[in-house]
Amino acid sequence: MSTKEVQLTENNLLGIMYMLLDALVVSILFASVKLLTKTIPSNQVVFLYKFIVLIMILPWVFKDGFKTLITKKLPYYIIGGIFGTIATLCLMYSLKYIPIANVVSLNYLEKILLFLIGIFCFKELFSAAKLIAIIISFMGAIIVLQPELFSHIPEFSIPDIHYIFIAISIIFWVIYCIIVKLLGRTETVKTQTFYTVLISTILSSFVALFSWNLKEVMGIKILLPSGFIAIKNLSLDLSNILILLLVSLCYLTRSIASFKAFKHGELSIIMPFGYSKIIFSAIIGFYLFNEMPKVNEYIGYIMIIISGILLFRKFKT
Known about the structure:
Layout: H1 3-36, H2 42-61, H3 74-97, H4 100-107, H5 109-120, H6 128-151, H7 153-156, H8 161-183, H9 189-208, E1 210-217, E2 220-228, H10 238-264, H11 267-270, H12 276-289, H13 295-316
Antiparallel strand pairs: 1-2
Helix pairs in contact: 1-10, 1-12, 2-3, 2-9, 2-10, 3-8, 3-9, 5-8, 6-13, 9-10
């Protein structure tokens, strides 16, 4: 292998490692948020954990002075922050009303979109191995979630506002990932983390000021503000505070991991490893909620692992 090929291999390996870490902490984050939204509105949850993360990163960001603030890409951060914040708010809102299995399965459409964008927009190398691995991993995800997914097919024919929020989240998150990929070419992880968290905290704070309810306008259900939120009405007991801290730590870890994954690896190679989220979720579910995987789920897990091995062997040799 040439020096350039060796470097590409090493970068992709780093990208895969960070993507696996991202998948693990996201699985923990989803489960934690599901618990929190039982007593705290989702828009409040989003603001609170982003604000906590902002406080957590300040010592790290300003350790070497204010040079982290120096950037020529502030418009990109603002645009990315808008798309990322809307995507997060939509996802967390839908997570409260829709089974996690459905949310996870629909979010895998994001991986397919990013794979295609990596090939056609970033001119990443196309190969049969990549395509086969993508197909196998996607089929594995469907097999794992098949009972829940197919049992809810009738609901998709009805304009359910909660599923619409998932669709918005997927589209906006794909745009956010593209912006992160572009920023990763010149920006440091520290700069990316600071501006992303700062802007998303500011934006989510405005949403957190209000309580939101579905209202029918001209025959269409729209989520609209119905009044200000009183701080005293928030259920911030010790258990919720601890879970919020866990969510904040997971969010911070996944932010850094995703930045580094996009910076080092090719989108079309690293994104299939995001399917490991299913495996991590199954393990967490088994130990915390005594959820025993079914036969079809084991088959899906094996297919997902095989897809990862195919990609690894492709650029390892």
